[in-house]
């Protein structure tokens, strides 16, 4: 089983409009609302691929009630830690040309006893897992080393960890040496304090980040695919050109497909290729719609994998 952990989930409200133009009006074509957050999105992809997943998350207030109801319709098991404050609401606005704006709330602080409940729930469920995906931001005033504790818990039980976060939470968690991390270009730039523009700069960034602690690093580069450094070497996965409708969530799909493939004992390079295929397939879909295995397989055949070492 692949566990996903999302301690700062959200209701994802998606608004589709005819056009997004500065200082001009747009007309709403469609509105949807669904439970979201990086880990929840990852569980959606793993479940749609036929994998076994369990989503662990926090849930608070009336927004949390709507989130639980939405999760109940998605078909995979989940468990929640009830928290005092309302869960957050994130807004995605996309137009027909694929231009997208993402507006995220920070989320509400968690109390000490709530963090302990999260810790205890993860500890209790790790016995059934091969992987745990630790996903998303941490709420305000939560200690940035919290993810370190989760990684150490998993290591004690022989469970592999994928970390998909940013900022101080990412920086501190590297000390715990997660199995793999999946920063996108902007997250890696903030981590290293420098711009990553050229291919050689990205390759250098992979090397630098890997020296900071993780066993493997996947650098997600959007429409340019991804670079990965793992036990087998350094690889690039180059996607086909597509007309993107909504790239938001593509990184979640990539991380999920990569972990799903690794859990099936595939190679790091093969898993990277599947990850890029899933991320590309997601970008082709509107709003927060995630690809099926069949849609991902169709893109996978067009992803070019090559050694970059």
Order of helices and strands: EEEHEHEEEHEHEHEHHEEEHHHE
Residue ranges: pLDDT <50 for 5 or more in a row? Answer: none
Write the CATH architecture name: 3-Layer(aba) Sandwich
How many DSSP E strands?
A: 14
Any idea what the radius of gyration is? 18 Å
Helix content: 25-40%
The gross shape turns out to be globular
Largest sheet: 10 strands, mixed
User: How large is the share of residues in beta strands?
Assistant: 25-35%
Quaternary form: single chain
Mean pLDDT: 94
Look at the structure and name the CATH superfamily. Ribokinase
For this structure, what is the CATH class? Alpha Beta
What is this entry, summarized?
This protein is an alpha/beta fold and 309 residues long.
Structure description:
It is a single chain. The protein has 309 residues and is of the alpha/beta class. It has a single domain (2-307), classed as UDP-N-acetylmuramoyl-L-alanine:D-glutamate ligase. The chain has 10 helices and 14 strands. The protein has a 10-stranded mixed β-sheet, with helices on both faces. A 4-stranded mixed β-sheet has the order 3-2-6-7. Helix 8 (250-263) runs antiparallel to helix 9 (268-283). It is globular, with a radius of gyration of 18 Å.
């Amino acid at each position: 089983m692949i566990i996903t952990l999302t301690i700062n989930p959200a209701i994802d409200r998606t608004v589709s409009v005819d056009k997004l133009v500065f200082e001009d009006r747009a007309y709403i074509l469609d509105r949807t609302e669904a439970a979201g957050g990086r880990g929840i999105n990852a569980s959606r992809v793993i479940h749609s691929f036929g994998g076994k997943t369990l989503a662990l998350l926090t849930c608070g207030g009336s927004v949390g009630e709507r989130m639980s109801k939405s999760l109940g319709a998605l078909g995979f098991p989940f468990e929640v830690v009830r928290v005092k404050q309302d869960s957050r609401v994130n807004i995605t606005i996309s137009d027909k040309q694929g231009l997208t704006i993402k507006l995220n709330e920070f989320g509400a602080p968690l109390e000490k006893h709530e963090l302990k409940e999260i810790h205890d729930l993860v500890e209790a469920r790790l016995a059934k897992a091969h992987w745990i995906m630790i996903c998303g931001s941490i709420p305000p005033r939560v200690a940035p080393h919290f993810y370190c504790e989760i990684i150490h818990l998993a290591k004690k039980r022989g469970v592999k960890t994928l970390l998909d976060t940013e900022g101080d939470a990412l920086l501190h968690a590297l000390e715990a040496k997660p199995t793999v991390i999946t920063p996108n270009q902007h997250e890696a730039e903030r981590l290293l304090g420098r711009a990553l523009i050229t291919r050689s700069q990205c390759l250098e960034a992979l090397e630098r980040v890997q020296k900071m602690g993780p066993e493997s690093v996947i650098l997600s580069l959007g429409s340019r695919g991804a670079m990965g450094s793992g036990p087998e070497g350094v690889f690039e996965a180059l996607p086909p050109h597509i007309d993107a409708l909504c790239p938001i969530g593509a990184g979640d799909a990539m991380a999920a497909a990569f972990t799903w493939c690794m859990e099936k004992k595939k190679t790091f390079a093969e898993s990277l290729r599947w990850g890029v295929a899933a991320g590309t397939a997601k970008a082709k879909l509107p709003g927060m719609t995630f690809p099926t295995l069949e849609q991902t397989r169709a893109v996978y055949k067009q992803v070019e994998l090559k050694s970059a070492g």
